[in-house]
Write a sequence for this structure.
């Protein structure tokens, strides 16, 4: 992940977001978010204490995209990441709209009038799921190459050609008119064990391009933040979360629009919990290779999934004997191993996701249900086989979690 292009983009973005014009323009984005949240769901005093951090991360995400946004000189840059410290840089977070700590997201600008060659390697401890998606300017998926269809050599190396004339067969990605970017997702379940794929890109033929200055990035960023549509993504997902009663889960739907993975099923809902309340969430994987139960704050991002079980995937959680999963979502530790910790937040969102679904849908899945209960009543509704933990066992669980994440941004 620590490629020269990644480090250069982060350095450029850090300088750009400190520009006075960007700092002033952030007020527009914040106002748009507040208006959308007040219109659907409301804004608590708790939410107000977290909005500035979320706005800062959204702005830094856009800054990274602009810093690496020239399709004539494409760069592979990871976004939607938690804050990290490496190579002498304190890098802000770039999390937006339902980030996933199991996934690294790499955005690459493309021009359908150009041709590109992607090279990389799938390592022996490979991701459980990975995809190469083509987005249009509205972040709708117009083509997707799933990892299980990628052709590799014996050592895992691969070459992908992305052109306007590609048919979509084999390692060929078609760049139809309107294609704006490649969005590459690598998803792991075992932190510190499974490796993200290596990836590089080159325009063919290559052309010389003038590097962007921090001032140029800042000017574009400030203008972007003040456009009429700034904040539309938050408004859309906020409305989706509040499209049904809080503390309920609608049936999962397939993605493909609004930046969602095309072959992923997901369900979105808002939660509202008191300190003594919990949501008991029962999940059927439906044959999916991967599942995650994450809790987000009011502004649709995680807060601290490194030191808290704010997200649990199907490898991190303990399954029921029949292969289903039961999670407890709450701001207070319920003493259950499968605790999705809201990190003290009482208002936020759930975005359950299933990836690697079978071609033929499995019976009774994917599906999920939610039940609001008092924490004191949990034992009356949880399965008899539920794994409970002591305080020391919880600390061991959290220590193992943080340790498994620590290598991700190690220099």
């Amino acid at each position: 992940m620590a490629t020269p292009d990644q480090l250069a983009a982060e350095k450029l973005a850090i300088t750009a977001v400190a520009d006075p014009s960007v700092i002033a323009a952030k007020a527009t984005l914040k106002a748009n978010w507040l208006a959308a949240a007040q219109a659907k769901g409301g804004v608590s005093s708790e939410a107000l204490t977290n909005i500035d951090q979320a706005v800062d991360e959204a702005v830094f995400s856009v800054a990274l995209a602009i810093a690496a946004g020239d399709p004539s000189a494409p760069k592979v840059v990871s976004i939607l990441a938690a804050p990290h410290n490496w190579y002498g840089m304190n890098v802000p977070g770039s999390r937006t709209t339902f980030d996933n700590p199991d996934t690294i997201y790499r955005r690459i600008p493309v021009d359908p009038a150009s041709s590109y060659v992607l090279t990389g390697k799938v390592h022996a401890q490979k991701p459980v799921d990975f995809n190469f998606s083509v987005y249009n300017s509205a972040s709708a998926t117009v083509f997707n190459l799933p990892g299980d269809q990628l052709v590799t050599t014996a050592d895992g190396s691969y070459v992908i050609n992305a052109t306007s004339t590609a048919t979509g067969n084999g390692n060929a990605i078609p760049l139809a008119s309107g294609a704006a970017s490649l969005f590459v997702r690598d998803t792991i379940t075992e932190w510190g064990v499974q490796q993200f794929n290596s990836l590089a890109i080159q325009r063919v033929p290559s052309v010389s391009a003038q590097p962007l200055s921090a001032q140029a990035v800042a000017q574009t960023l400030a203008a972007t933040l003040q456009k009429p549509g700034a904040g539309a993504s938050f408004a859309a997902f906020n409305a989706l979360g509040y499209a049904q009663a809080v503390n309920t889960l609608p049936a999962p739907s397939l993605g493909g629009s609004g930046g969602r993975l095309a072959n992923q099923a997901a369900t979105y809902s808002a939660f509202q919990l008191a300190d003594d309340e919990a949501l008991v969430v029962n999940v059927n994987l439906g044959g999916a290779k991967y599942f995650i139960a994450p809790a987000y704050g009011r502004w649709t991002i995680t807060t601290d999934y490194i030191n808290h079980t704010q997200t649990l995937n199907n490898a991190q959680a303990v399954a029921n004997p029949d292969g289903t999963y039961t999670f407890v979502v709450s701001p207070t530790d319920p003493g259950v191993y499968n605790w999705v910790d809201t990190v003290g937040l009482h208002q936020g969102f759930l975005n359950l996701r299933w990836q690697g679904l079978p071609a033929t849908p499995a019976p009774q899945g994917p599906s999920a249900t939610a039940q609001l209960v008092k924490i004191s009543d949990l034992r009356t509704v949880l399965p008899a086989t539920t794994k409970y933990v002591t305080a020391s066992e919880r600390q061991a669980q959290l220590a193992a979690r943080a340790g498994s994440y620590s290598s991700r941004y190690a220099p």
